[in-house]
Structure formats: structure tokens, C-alpha cells
Design brief:
Layout lengths: L1 H16 L5 H10 L7 H23 L7 H22 L9 H27 L5 H32 L5 H21 L6
């Protein structure tokens, strides 16, 4: 039983930290980069909203409640990353992340739903004929949450180093990191197959 639990949690962790599927990491970087360590509670709450959305879409897909066009989802995932990164560029240094908490949380939840749909097909194969779908989903979600918190704290720590040791202004830090994310996500958009 414990062995299964750890397998599912580890599967969730590896899903996020998979070097070949770095869309998840790029989204988390975009989400976290405008914040400082003192905002960690807000960031963890945001990330939890993302996990909730991700898990909800997996539940809906696992129980056959929703079906979707995989190609559209593969296109929408990089769009969500691009939206957050571009928003960061235009609001860098303006303290925009302090305002409109409700909009930010709702948007993050919605983007989590989209990202979850991107993984739903593979997850259904993992579930197979399991009777404990919900338990499996929750264990997987726990793994996702653990890995996301690791990434968030890494981004916050790098931001702290960049702004204290290397004397980046907060605005420049957000602009540079968000621009790098935009540069990485545009090829993902073009290769999504949506334009072919």
C-alpha cells in the first residue's frame, strides 16, 4: 500500500520535473518571478490553485465527464504560459501582483484546468481499470504540489540572489526572466501542430 502511495506521489513529482516536458516549469517560473520571499504564502496559495485546477480536469477526464481535442489543448498550454509571461513584462515593477487577487487566483485555477487536460490521456492509461481512481488522483496531486513548491522556492531563492548579490532591480529581474520564458514558449506554440 505504502509502495503504491510513493509510486503515485513520485509520478506526480516527475510529471512536473520532467526535463522533456518543461511547460509546467515555465508556467511556474512565470507565476512566481514577480514575487519575493516575503510573499511566499501568496505564491504557495496560487500554486495550490493551479494544482486544484490540474486535479479537477484529471478527475473529469478520468471519469469520462469531459472529452477534448488534444491538439487544441497542446496549443492552449503554451498560450497560458505566454499570457502570464507577457503580463509580467507589462507590469514589471508596478506591483500589479498585489492587486486583483481574485482575478489572479481564478485565472491560475483556469490555467491549471488546461494543463491538467494536457496530461489526461497519459493519466487515464496509468489509471487503467483501477477501482481507487480518486485515491490515485490525490496521491498524484500531492506529488505535483511537492514538486511545484520546490520550483517556487528555487525561483524565489534565485530572485533573492539576483536582486541582493547581483543587484538586479526587481523590475529588471522580472523583465529578463519573463522574456526568457517568452523566448522558450514561442517555439512550443509554433510546434504545437495547431497551425499545421
Amino acid at each position: 500500500m505504502l509502495e503504491n502511495f510513493w509510486f503515485n506521489v513520485e509520478y506526480g513529482i516527475n510529471h512536473v520535473l520532467d526535463i522533456n516536458a518543461y511547460d509546467h516549469v515555465l508556467f511556474l517560473i512565470s507565476l512566481t518571478v514577480p514575487y519575493a520571499f516575503k510573499d511566499w504564502k501568496r505564491v504557495v496559495l496560487l500554486v495550490s490553485m493551479f494544482t486544484l485546477g490540474h486535479t479537477l480536469s484529471l478527475i473529469l477526464a478520468a471519469y469520462g465527464i469531459v472529452s477534448f481535442d488534444a491538439q487544441l489543448v497542446e496549443f492552449l498550454i503554451p498560450v497560458t504560459i505566454l499570457v502570464v509571461a507577457v503580463y509580467n513584462v507589462f507590469t514589471a515593477g508596478k506591483g500589479a501582483q498585489k492587486e486583483r487577487v481574485g482575478v489572479l487566483f481564478f485565472t491560475t485555477l483556469f490555467f491549471g484546468l488546461i494543463h491538467g487536460l494536457g496530461f489526461a490521456r497519459e493519466f487515464r492509461m496509468l489509471l487503467g481499470d483501477s477501482d481507487n481512481k480518486l485515491v490515485l488522483l490525490l496521491e498524484f496531486a500531492l506529488g505535483i504540489e511537492i514538486s511545484q513548491i520546490i520550483i517556487v522556492f528555487m525561483v524565489l531563492f534565485l530572485g533573492y540572489l539576483g536582486q541582493t548579490i547581483f543587484r538586479f532591480s526587481k523590475r529588471d529581474w522580472v523583465m529578463v526572466i519573463s522574456s526568457v520564458v517568452i523566448g522558450l514558449v514561442i517555439p512550443m506554440l509554433l510546434n504545437s501542430g495547431f497551425f499545421k
